[in-house]
Amino acid sequence: MHVAHLTLHDFRSYADLDVALEPGATAFIGRNGQGKTNLVEAIDYLSRLSSHRVSTDTPLVRAGADQAIVRASVVKEGRTALLEVELNPGRANRARINRSPLPRPREIVGLVRTVVFAPDDLTLVKGDPSDRRRFLDDLLVLRTPRLAGVRSDYDRILKQRNSLLKTAGIARGGSRDAALSTLEIWDDNLARVGSELLGARLALVEALRPYLGKAYEAVARGASRDDADVEYRPSIELGPDGDDRDLQQAMLDAIAARRKDELDRGISLVGPHRDELLLTLGNGELRLPVKGYASHGESWSFALALRLASYDLLRADGDDPILVLDDVFAELDTERRSQLAQLVAGAEQVLVTAAVAADVPEALRGTRFRVADGQVTREE
Ligand SMILES: Nc1ncnc2c1ncn2[C@@H]1O[C@H](COP(=O)(O)OP(=O)(O)OP(=O)(O)O)[C@@H](O)[C@H]1O
Predict the structure, then answer these.
(1) Of 36, 57, 305, 342, which residue is 20 to 30 A from 328 by alpha carbon distance?
(2) Prediction pTM value
């Protein structure tokens, strides 16, 4: 798939932008702070209804404006669709396809699929478990858009259950009994929705593993495809079958076992929000966690491999996602730069941002745009 046309209105630093794009490699070159990332961020937003840089919509709307619009015509297997999202911080967002409103904006998620490489990707390796969980969930939703609903239901249930645990933890007598019996309903909800999310994550990790080994071998000099691995570490004991019903029961058992701790601490201690994606490097006995052990270069290679593996997995699902390489080349040594460039050069559309043209490897020398003072100008 590729974006053939992008229109922005009051998105980030752009009052109005209208730019025609082509398949293949496109580089946006400009000094710092000119709006290169803002531009590719808009395409990523259209894909996931969230940004790789911020967790709320407010910073995405141009300062002083109260609404932003991102509109893109997207070409997939020769057919074009016009996708549009209206961002209304503090009010409901709206989405349209071919100018027809969607009942829920969430329905637009996954129609454009992007894989974004960004300087912050090192946090996938060095950051908190929540960074890796977000990585998995973002990928899950791109592959199976329906799971966006499961993910947000889970967050909502978790919030409500946590506040009930706090109440039940300090209540006494009849009001404690009432809170505890309501808690059972929320235990069931958490286990039902949590086990669906857990099952989906377990399946995703298994699907990703072979691609990860291959990707790490491709980006890290001298590595073999057995070197890099991932393992999903749930916060509960998994049953032998690991089917959805088992997962739900395993979660309920674990919730029952941690009841006292949960009431004492007033938070949910069991569920996918407590799980970890363990990243490891090495062979056999010398397999070590990446976090805390790997060198800076190895950590970078691992982060790149996670993104490349995501790209390969989405591609294996049958559609070439749009690749965004946001300011990553300045972070990489010459060898990794050209390796990465060669690996992605065949993608249907690669959008690159860089402060200086010399940072963009030869293999990605395609269409060039200069970005300066809010203007995006094609260079002949
Ligand atoms: N909501 C907003 N309203 C107005 N301006 C904004 C908004 N959000 C960001 N900006 C401006 O956009 C600019 C940053 O743009 P962007 O992140 O795209 O830069 P860039 O060209 O990618 O730079 P770099 O090379 O440093 O990464 C900053 O000057 C910032 O002040």
Answers:
(1) 57
(2) 0.91
